[in-house]
Design brief:
alpha/beta, eight-stranded parallel barrel, two-stranded antiparallel sheet, about 45% helix
């Protein structure tokens, strides 16, 4: 097994079995939506559907990219893509870096045969995109039939990894080239450390249409890396475990820049999703709950978990007197002092 394959397998195992979450908070709990005791609505009146990146979803929820490049990862991708297809959600593959190095791993990312109708997101690291060039990245998109491409930023994780990248120069130029050169939309995505105002302003200036804020408060990839590797890697990963911008703050920052916004990073329930949508997110993405459900009980358990998330979101929409997820943006709420401090 190659170093990348070993790393990806280790990541999945650690996320499924160990305490890998940020010890801080997403700050979503500081968004208290006011209960409407007389909503004058039937549950059947609630329409969760939303159009995201040209695809109509049954709910504004996406399964985040997790892995690829190994048979085990391919099995996971196909299973969770099946969940997305059955539930009308979006789905993203994990980093396609392995495809750049070993094209024969492409099959582990291909899910269109089980999920022909999903919003499908490709995935490549910004450093790999810089090195590969637009034409090669376009081949990754075409090879799996993706509707859009996530370009992920993970400087903190790379610095922790003994074998990680150290040179992040030219990242913005690489993103700009992809925005101009690809035939599908580009989504710039963090990986658990969030996106701040300075970065978001730069991305908007490049013409980036969408971001996935992937804020702090959920899975900490620096924590994951602290559980593997050398003593140096374990120490730095532990130091940086709680590094980042909370998800709730990053959502508001992205909306202030007028960017299409996917909220991820610590989304664990329909209530979390509703709070993120109330802050201005267009859609919400999550990974860990579905990974753990699948690891513990297979496809049926993952389907049940997806159903729980959709049911929770539907309930909160009704209980705020709203009809659609987009209406949550104008629902009355109370914002706590810690989040207000981040936003001010």
């Amino acid at each position: 097994m190659t170093d990348i394959a070993e790393r990806k397998t280790s990541h999945l195992r650690l996320c499924a079995e160990q305490d890998v979450e940020h010890r801080g908070t997403t700050l979503l709990e500081e968004v208290r939506l006011l209960h409407d005791a007389t909503p004058e609505l039937s549950l059947d009146d609630i329409d969760l559907s939303a159009e995201i990146l040209g695809r109509r979803l049954q709910a504004p929820l996406l399964v985040s990219g997790m892995s690829g490049g190994t048979p085990e990862a391919g099995e996971l991708n196909r299973a969770l893509a099946t969940v997305a297809q059955k539930c009308g959600l979006g789905f993203g593959v994990g980093s396609q870096r392995a495809m750049l190095l070993r094209p024969e791993t492409a099959q582990s990312y291909r899910v269109r045969d089980v999920a022909p109708d999903v919003l499908l997101l490709g995935n490549v690291g910004v450093v790999q995109a810089r090195e590969a060039g637009v034409a090669r990245v376009a081949e990754l998109v075409t090879a799996i039939g993706a509707d859009a491409l996530c370009v992920h930023l993970n400087a903190a994780q790379e610095l922790v990894q003994d074998e990680g990248d150290r040179d992040f120069r030219g990242a913005l130029d690489a993103v700009g080239a992809l925005v101009d050169g690809l035939s599908v939309p580009v989504i710039v995505k963090e990986t658990g450390c969030g996106l701040g105002p300075r970065t978001l302003s730069r991305l908007r200036a490049l013409g980036v249409p969408w971001v996935d804020v992937s804020g702090a408060g959920g899975t900490s990839w620096t924590a994951v890396e602290s559980m593997r590797g050398t003593e140096r890697q374990r120490a730095l990963g532990s130091d940086l475990r709680d590094w980042g911008i909370p998800t709730a703050a990053a959502i508001v920052y992205a909306r202030r820049e007028g960017l299409g916004t996917i909220a991820s990073g610590g989304i664990r329930s329909g209530l979390d999703a509703a709070r993120a949508l109330a802050l201005g997110a267009d859609a919400v993405s999550l990974a860990l709950p579905l990974l753990r459900a699948y690891a513990g009980g297979g496809l049926d358990a993952a389907l049940a978990e997806a159903g729980r998330l959709v049911e929770g979101l539907r309930a909160v929409v009704l209980l705020t007197g709203s009809r659609r997820p987009a209406d949550l943006g104008s629902a009355p709420r109370v914002v706590g002092p810690v989040l207000r401090a981040w936003l001010e």
